[in-house]
## 1
Amino acid sequence: MNQHQTQRRQVLRAGGGLAVLGALAAAGIVLPRQALAEWNKQAFDAKTLDDAMKAMGAEAPANSGDVQIVASDIAENGAVVPVQAVSKLPKTEKIAILVEKNPSMLAASFDLGPETLPEVTARIKMGQTSNVIVVVKADGKFYMASKEIKVTLGGCGG
Amino acid sequence: MNRRDFLHVLATAAAGGMLLPAGFARAQAAAADFYDAPAFGNVSLLHITDCHAQLRPIHFREPSVNLGVGSMVGQAPHLVGARFLEHFAVKPGTAEAHAFTCLDFEEKAGVYGKVGGFAHLATLVKRVRANRPGALLLDGGDTWQGSGTALWTGGQDMVDAAKLLGIDIMTLHWECTYGQDRVKEVAEKDFAGTIDVVAQNIKTADFGDDVFKPFVMREVNGVPVAVIGQAFPYTPIANPRYMVADWTFGIQEENMQATVDAARAAGAAVVVVLSHNGMDVDLKMASRVSGIDAILGGHTHDGMPAPTMVANPGGKTLVTNAGSNGKFLGVLDLEVKDRRVTGFRYKLMPVFANLLAADPEMHAFIEKVRAPFAAKLDEVLAVSEGLLYRRGNFNGSFDQLILDALMMEKDAEIAFSPGFRWGTTVLPGQPITMENLLDQTAITYPYVTLNAMSGEQIKTVLEDVCDNLFNTDPYYQQGGDMVRVGGLSYSCDPTAPMGRRIQDMTVRGQPVEAGKTYKVAGWAPVSEEARTAGGEPVWELVARNLRARKTVAAPRLNLPTLKGVDGNPGLTA
């Protein structure tokens, strides 16, 4: 393990969540505006996919190959499923991650500043096998991609 | 009968003009030609995988049920018996036919004898290497688990045997069930300067850093060869996650492409992946990732005499799978000209213990590591009247023995036993020793469980495991077989979608009710709570049961009624 990695772990161990977020913000990685972005209550409370989309102002977004979901096909742990969303679209201003079969579908929404690399990762909770949908707003228009992530009971491996 | 006795019998028989089994005499004559065939090209890779710690020769019956679904119907590896022989143009009745299929298994096992064993494998490796200077020996993993001695030494017997055999590079799966610290200890101390552990798809759970080198570059006769590791992607799901709490796995296809590109950029003229994906996953990955010359695969224990050629946007990739339990040595000869592969020859050589003298050094090592445990391992628990084997999609007779013992000893109406693909074979009339039993059960989480489950929960479990086996998208498969079930009858349509494959569930002739509770015995729980709860190791329960029974009749296999797979070449007629 190299020096850099060790330092990162030490920072996290010593820091605790809030301090680290502050440190990252100070380093310009996360804008304070993003960290404390206004809570879109309606979108996060939505119980159907249509309602969640509507609340984000994204009705029937088009499928796009420029929106990529990087995630394991089978979740190692349904309680923390790492999902990376990448947008190749210019002027990406928003990335949202939705889980179709979660009781509340919108799991995360990121508002991005103009100089931000449009790549975000979130660890989301999934109760069962579901499609995970990433919605991207770029240059005023909405796009999406979808991927099934399986949540299984485990055991019985060859 | 050991090899010397055997040769003596042969000599006596020949002197007396006795008729030898024609198949075996031909096999003997052909063996030298086969094992010592000249090499091809200038880069050779030798490959073993999934030996499951079988240091001594064993019998291993190949499956009679290995169904393919969706686009995989009738494609390698989903072929059994006569359909397998037709597909690969293997002559029926030959030694190879016996090694690759279950046809006439009991009779042919008597004729051709045991297979594998590290002392015999070591001899073969030396012979093959003699014709191929500079050849690399690659180990696809599942090497440290599967025997009593491996379990009791924390895999140390296999770690030392791998070094003695001359393994150059390995990747991982069951190794991880000794815990991440143990794996790191071996990789960093025992293997330092000898064996490289590679895995592009094992990362730290916090920052996603590499835990092992994604690939290593080795020069073979002046040709730079990159070997990329692909560990079993679903280790934290199929096995206890607490064993590898700080690591994350997955297929990581994007990272595989990036790793291939990095290896090429670093000057690799040949890129091979040493994979523990399982064959269906390897075939899909080969179709989507460009720049891999060959994937040397394992995990699904498919002994494939010939590789499958897979087209992808960058060209073609060979996909092999080298069987299990030490039965085979894969030999891939590549011709590399102007920094690219221009031709290949592949052979999957069966390791017939009677046709290969034991390597004295390896033999002495094996006897030494086994000696402290010999008395325990050699205990005869019972005599089996029938053939005991495990491999097959739905059940095996050794699994049925375990299920019957679980139900008897725990007074349970239903029993579950995991669909592991390892586990050796006992011939009819042979004693069942503690060693044989440990071959089926030696894991680091062997606890017996007894649970009250609702009919609905039972259905959910069966559907979940069945989808891991028969999902039409290989990336959603985990590479084990169906959970073995005792006491409960059901029908299964592998071609149906998840939730609709398992039907007609009955217990003692009565339909299973969703809301009713049933007493279910099992073993090998993956949850951390189960570890805390403890429980008797399953081999102790089964040993107790067998000792009391003394003679065991051929178990009556509880098999599901299959639907939707008539004529499937993965099913023996």
## 2
Amino acid sequence: MGANLFNNYGEAVEMLLFVIGFGNLMLQSNLIKKIIGLNIMDTAVYLFLAEKGYISGRIAPIVIDGIQDVETYINPVPSGLVLTGIVVSVSVSALMLSLTIRLYQRYHTLDLDEISLRLKKEGL
Amino acid sequence: MSVELEFVQNFPCFSIMFCMFAGIISSAFKEKVARILNIAVLTINIILSAAVFVFTVNAGKAYVYVMGRFPAPWGNELRIGILETGLALFFCVIMLLSLLGGRHKLMQEVEEGKQGLYYVLSDLMLSSLLALLYTNDLFTAYVFVEINTISACGLIMIRQNGRTIEAAVRYMIMSLLGSGLFLVGICMLYDLTGHLLMSNIKIEIAHMVAEGSYRPPLLVTIAIMSVGLAIKSALFPFHAWLPDAYGYSTVSSAAILSSLVSKGYIFLMFKIIYRVIGFDVFHDSKIVNILFIFALMGMVFGSLSAIKENDVRRMIAFSSVAQVGYIYMGVGMGTHAGMVAAVFHVISHVATKSLLFIAAIGLTDVSGGSRKFIELTGSGYRNKCAGAAFSVGSLSMVGVPMFSGFISKLLFSQAAVQNTVKMLPILIVLGISTILNAVYFMKTVIRIYTPVNNREYSTVTWRDNKVYAAVLFCFVVLNILLGVCSQPIVDLIESGLMMFA
């Protein structure tokens, strides 16, 4: 168990990052910190994917010197997934930030709990 | 590919594309064009889905649609069976009805000039729902889950006040936690199996289970994906975002979100159980038991929260928590009969919950716009259509024979009797939950039919808003139809689940 953890230290670090991001997104009450948590969480997943696609000693799958042997290149699929994932997380972060701006304009605070408290008082 | 496709078999792909392009195109046009385009796309989709549905029922088996004709392990696929097409047809119909029924409120509640965007969002929402129903590729499913989340967030916050923006933020946060977990699950599955297509993953997992290798990672993966989707579909302990999101958004959004969006994720869950992990592997992993416990708690606590609520829209929203609990209880039974009951309850809940939201708005409109129970007194006399429709929805939710809710409760209890271990808790909680349902729904029905002598509120008849009355009528007919001729539908669900795997 311990040896496995040490051998796969990359994955262990990524999962740790994921948990940090997840915790921040869930527990922070400051909206900007939440969004930072979201980005850490997503990046951890992309790091995980990139690590899974990499095969040590091989090069990026771009044919330049005519070598068509599969053994030369790394697995390109995870890289494609990472690209797709980045697009998704960029758009989601943009949406979250725009919502944050709206809330800030209205309530002049970034604290989500305080906003909820004020909404309760307004009793809308 | 040497297999020749019939023209009908292209329709699922067409319908996804139609919705997506309609959304993109209508963002450039004025509101009226967007509205007409939206109705046209929905109508076309109903026709296309109906055609494919008839085709799959006649063919008696599911077929695979290869996108771009790249063969199996590399290309992207759609997989189309009875269940997928049937639900697509049903979802399109409900979406059309919800949009038509909430149109007059949309005009009042959303700023001038932004109403066009609503139709853009709902087109995108429909395309992502259809893609979630049809796709056979896990990563495509993830991308469309995110599109679904973004458009759902837009649907919540299009009515601009502090409440809805806060609700949208909370909804986004919970959804992102859910989809983050789901994404990790997909990556780990890809790591374990080397595939992204659902059918291929299942073959690899069957190998792994037979060999007994990689047991802990597989268990963790199943757990992570289940919890991710449970968060997104608002299973009990993860439901905190739900009442605000459903309670304060404009009524079409509430109807669409509660009836369709959460069901899209639940359907993805069914898909993962049957087509990715495999029913037996999923069942043996004991994750079902955790879902089962959450479901039972949701059925009780969702209803208790609904009883305490003093706002009719939020009450209906809390009732959704209980109903999602029912669906997950069917999943948690770990039997095929339980799954059939769960799918039927998905359909029944879709039909009933959208009816309740749309009907409730008619009642609050004739009570000075207030949603407090005290103001609703006697509103069933002031708007007779909405009152009758709300009563039908309530009776269906409580489980009175003749309406769809009765059939799903019947199916759940029949499935429970077959499962010796879980029978007692299921039957007890089902009983308690039914009584609690009856308490808050019947309380509301009695309230709206209590005569009151104040003349300050106006009276509305069906002639004042014919579209609204027609929509309510369609919903009521749908509900009674589901309750009266349930047997053919149950048979279809059974054969659909058979060809699902």
## 3
Amino acid sequence: MKVSRNFIISMFLLFPAAVLLIAFTFYPTVATLIDSFFSTPRGRRPAAFVGLGNFERMAADPVFHRAFFNNLIYAAVTIPVSMGLALAMALLVNSRIKGRGFVRLAYFTPTILPMIAVANIWMFFYAPDYGLIDQFLGLFGLGGTNWLGQSGTALWALIAITIWKLAGFFMIFYLAALQQIPPSLLEAATLEGANYLQRLRRVVLPLLMPTTLFILINAVIEAFRLVDHVIALTRGGPNNSTQLLLHYIYQVAFNFWDTAYAAALSVVLLSILALIALIQFGFLDKRIHYR
Amino acid sequence: MTMTFLKRALLGSASLSMLALSPAIAQTNITFFYPVQVGGPLTDVIDGYVAEFQAQNPDIAVEAIFSGNYTETTTRALTAARSGNPPTVAVLLATDIYTLIDEDVVQPIDTFVTSDDDQEWLDGFMPAYLASAQVDGHLWAVPFQRSTAVMYYNKEAFAAAGLDPEQPPRTWDEMVEFGKALTVSDSSGNVTQWGLGIPSSMNAVHWLFGALVAQNGGMLSSEDGTHTFFDSPEVIEALQFFVDLSTEHGIHPPGILEWGTTPSDFMQGRLAMAWHTTGNLSNIRNNAPFDFGVAPYPGNPEPASVLGGGNLYIFSGASEEQQAAAFEFVKFMTSAELLADWGVQTGYVAPRDDSWETETLRNFVQEVPQAQVARMQIADSVPEISTFEAARINQVLNTGIQAAVIGEQTPEAAMQAAQAEADRILAIYRD
Amino acid sequence: MSANRPSNATQISVTLFAWCLALLWVLPLLFAIWTAIHPPVYVGSFDLFAPLTLENFVRVWNAAPFDRYFLNTFILVTFVVISQFVICTLAAYAFAVFPFRGSQWLFMVVLVQLMVMPEVLLVRNYATISKMGLIDTIPAIALPYLASAFGIFLFRQAFKSVPKELDEAARMEGAGPLKVLWRVYVPLSRSTYLAYGLVMVAYHWNNFLWPLVVTNSATTRPITVGLQVFSTVEQGIDWPTVTAATLLSVAPLLVAFLIFQRQFVQSFMRSGIR
């Protein structure tokens, strides 16, 4: 029977992936879910079942609210801006400009500079008065801005770093896709009298759709994962204005040692992400047509 | 300890005689986690100490593991302990003590102290540094890399402002008065040199704020680690003073001052007086392009500073042989000579009086008289805030201080909120 | 984009914009180079005549085994990417070509992993690795990442777009499932492999938190963790040291990219990522 043959072959093919997924994803996920219903065990006090206690605490936790809200802003800004810039960069590098090789390399450099290392460089840029940004603004009589040290600008300063880090990376994918667009399509559009923007909108962007979705998945993941610079620069401060969800989980788990509460927070983050994943993939599976 | 000594002697001679017969020497393996918190890679120095120890104790093999900064080292040690594979010895923050006791992962040091020699070794530590390691009638750790907060000041800026470079401020009022003289603006009104800088970033502010509170005659936490006094008048007043430095007196840069950039701020001439750790002395000495002084902290009225840094802990998950070997290692690492050398290499304050009598440190003090200030100040210093759930309580305190510093809350409201949150967290530790 | 050449003014302003953006993007690297070749006293003062020095590099090079860190990262990234290719290819092949009852459901279960970041499961995974006795080994850094839902999803998409006729033709010639996979599906999905490979190389080149937790010694530590030694901020940031260390550790990749960038970009483009 065909079905059972497929089943047997699949079992062999899926075996390595299944073992790894169970050991490093599903078992720890389920364990985390279970942990979230218990209190944190301490050496002197074993874990006790607390039901939804951790989640009730979360509902009343202002830091969690702040982290949640901040992460929404962080995602809502970094995802579209880094993708838009990536597209713009790819279009620039794909056109006939002087020094294309250097420009392309320049856009790509953030990808090979580990975040943990560049965080310190950015700290210098943001330093008040003698930092690079303030020295530059000082030329126009502005300056003295404490970019990382006040709640109005700190989150945006981190967002700028994230965009810097991601845009050049995403550019590579757009660039590769742009080169695949048959010149005949563009020539045809030109003959019909379409100007640059019209060609972009009617021909280029639709053809970039699969690439856009591929990048979107990565951008969403990074928007919730990339907190290295929070750890290195602000640790969530000032007054929690740069607190992000994964950073808060990291703090609760590895600074406060409240693993149960961290588990509850993780459950919330995982639910959000799983939901986004299912929506995206349900959508993607129908929309992307690979040749 | 005679037992251990005998055992060791036996083991030692046995292994020596067996050396020719068998390649397998009975060795005790211990692991040692340590952070390097002051700049410059000091892993080579530690490796040198370990090699020396192993040469003296061939039956003990020490695996020294550099493990990032303090937070990362604590993270790693606790993660390892929870998965049943703890380090044998680790250098962790003195303030981690309640967390480690709460997790039940450390062995009190005094349970190893049996001989007179051991007792003599223990008595050699400065009492101020031992105090914070004593809980429930036990000594849980011994001081290793300890520091204290001091004030660095720019002597040239003092002279330029018409102040005596040899007379740093002794009271809050003097500090504000000097600060006003030292704050310089350019023609368009932008401040080019601030009088004073006290770092207020997340990783440091509870420490320096502890000094402000002590100067104002208050304290942040109770000795048993179960209560905090954030909403006491002394604490709120100290925070008000901190906020006023910028808003009222205009001598302190507005917003959060980053701990990591403060030394640069000072060396760039952006700050005329800066509060930081003694661990920074060699950095500033090497790189400041001007003559600088190190001053003890001022008072309101009584001067006070705050102690910081890391202690050596022995973990309870290891076998008895390992723990005994670990104790030998701890004694070696805290000998007068070694602590003196470590102090010179790093800038940490040697926590033993006899270390300061060694030739190493004497020569150093002669060469760098500023190093002496830290030692003189220890008598006036208070321990860093230390409670159960220390990291979380610090976070609550720091968030409150920052809320006031950036003007989102009044000092009173911020500290009352912080106290309420701390009470909620510590409730289960109060019997 | 050929034809309908834009006006000169537009051309110039576009070029100018591209260059400004490029300058902005490369600024951190320029700053790193500038700071690393000057004595610490000159941090922040951009004096053209400041004395040059290589002392920062010498100090950093002597302080840490960068060659070893780089080798570790290289081994790690190679191991991860090759293992992912094999494991994810097999799984994707099963989902794309050998559907069975419940395989659609199983696929959705696998997809959940996409967003379950190993970072969130740190404590649990550490315990697992510890039980396996793998702490402080390079496989320990790699294991949680080897079965990637992202890879399985991408490869499945690629395999699904392979024309059925090619598959059937290969089978008619008597090729077994694995041979068909190797001869037909993999070659036709080259572009997906390249795109996915690039994402993963970048991811693991930059990865920090998990390697930090599971490695203990210089013989396993990747570059990111090795770099952390130089960025502890307790004493204040020593920018010349940090930047020199950063440059030393990214230098091999940077040089490789400079030399091979034309080939790299061209082959990437020729393969045609969709």
